[in-house]
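BUG: 3D viewer hangs when loading the predicted structure for this chain

Environment: internal workstation, default settings.
Expected: structure renders.
Actual: progress bar stalls at 90%.

Input used:
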Amino acid sequence: DIWKRSCELAVDVYVANHNSKDFGLRDQMQRAAVSIPSNIAEGCERDSTPDFIKFLRYSKGSCGELRTQLYIADRVRKKLDHPALEGSREMISETKELSKMIQGLINSLNRRSNS
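C-alpha cells produced before the viewer hung:
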C-alpha cells in the first residue's frame, strides 16, 4: 500500500510540475518523489530485513526532502505572486502520511526481527 501510494505521489509531482520553468527545483522534486517508491522496491528485493529497513529509511528521508521542496515551491510562488503549485497542499499531506506509514513499517519489522 505504501509503495502504491508513493508511486501515485510521484505521478502527481510530475503532473503538477509539467509546465514549470524552474528546472532545478522541478527536477529535484521529481527525483525525490521517484526515490520514495524506488527505495521501497529496492529494499523489498533485498534478502534481509536489516537491508529492507535501511532502504525504508532512505525512502522516509526522500519523503521529508520532497515535503521541504513542496514548501519551498509554495513560498517562492507566493513571493512572485504566482498561483500555488497545483495540489501542493495535498501532496504535502501525503508526504506526512507516507512518512508515518513508513515509520510504522520500520517499527513493525524491528519488532519482528527482535522477537
